[in-house]
Prior knowledge:
alpha+beta, about 550 residues
Amino acid sequence: MLRSRGHQGCIWLAAFCVAAASLALYAAAVWFGNLNQDEGWYLYAARAVADGRLPYRDFFFTQGPVMPYLYGLFTPLWSPHGVLGGRIFTAVLGLLSGLLAAGLARRAVPSPRAAEAGLIAFALTACNLYHVYFTTIPKTYALASCLLLGGFLVLTLSLSRRRKTRSHLSCMWALPAGMLVAFAAGVRLSLGAMLPVTALALLVSYRKTGAAFFWFALGGGVGLALAFGPALLEAREPFLFSQSFHVARGGRDLFFMAGSLARTVQAYLPAVMLLAALALFRLFRGGGVAGSVSQDEPTGILYRGQFWPWLWLAAFLAVFGVQLASPYPYDDYQVPVMGLLAAAVAGWTANSTSSGSLRGCVCLLWVTGSLLASFGSPLAQSWFVARQDRFWVVRKAVPDLAVLRQTARDVRALSGEDDLLLTQDLYLAVEAGMRVPEGLEMGPFSYFPQLSDDEAARYHVMNDTRLEALLTAAPASVAAYSGYGFAIRSPVMDEVPAARRHAFLSVLGQHYDGVQEVPDFGQNCTTLQIMKRRTPLGAQKP
Length: 542
């Protein structure tokens, strides 16, 4: 009885800690989290879809079409509040993804162990500051994570915990599961790697029925058709051009791959350490984690061999490898699939011992470890520090988001009734509730100097000719550019030569006068220049 009370006490304490900590971390990330240029063009694309425009056909967009469609559907909720509204909406999806990871972990173990598994998985995701931040800012990660975790959670319903109750009817749950995973690929194309891996695992492990494989494959095909079919039918060439953006950036560099891997390990150290501990446990205890299931617990196909966690690990590794092999493998690319790893290691951890009191202590230990890792994360310091001047730390006077909101109010006041803003800083346009000229919908990533005029027009981007013409004749009363403005060449993502950028700014200066300078603005705290049109539209240089 005392052991049972001690176990329940540990579980309730862990549950309280993760609930309070996740809400506090997400709230902090919403307001204090550093601004990221990506936030602007993802929210702007969603707003464009809400206005009736379509990605690829009407504007350049480098990711799959699912995110702008879904965010566009909910535009009335977040758009009136600008980037803040977009962050709150994304944070809700981020919290939901943590709950889905917990639900997935619970399906990996017998019911007496489910609570511990769910709490550990939730702590490894929704209480990890790095994961929290990147599922709060409006990027593809929160939505993609919800879709793929939801898909794998639904997939567990297709195979009963007891072989004798498995039926062809229950296998039909694999149909919506396949669709959800396919929709996740429609958010980030690289997530499509888990479709064949999952289908193959179902075929090999359940080849006697084949029903789960069939329904999952059918659902995946239908989901891909719904996600990508309209774009391929209406704007095939611009769509293919946009989806080749990331692979066209250059060759692979082992130095970048090693750095990305090291930063990912640092960001998710509690999960990696737990995985390493389980591997050592299995190595030195020959029975392995699955061998510890007590005799009175079900030993159906879900538990004998631990099929589900191994499937999630295989899907995770497939996507992890694809993204790590990209030309510039940013460590945050891995955020959408970390819930799969968390669910797998949480399930194995909860299943590693039959002692209830010990399981409760282990659960509380890893919850505490996740919270301590977040407290010690260098990411938190970056939210409050603008830069370091030699050995003096220059603190931010106010959060990045507060600077953006005030700057947007200033720009809106300068523009009057004009709702067009000439800028490549899309989050400024989103916050001000303004539009940008056509061809700048992807901000700094909209400039492709190697394209001909016809190609640039067909793909809805800028080359030298189109950009100079825009800077000369844009019908915008206000222009704004930060350190990112006219400074990046796509798709290789190198710096625009100084002479070329100076030429662009000279053309802009022929028609606009500087009226305000905002230091430490936006991503990486560059200086924003705000300009007011001096010459009437169409006037020639004297």
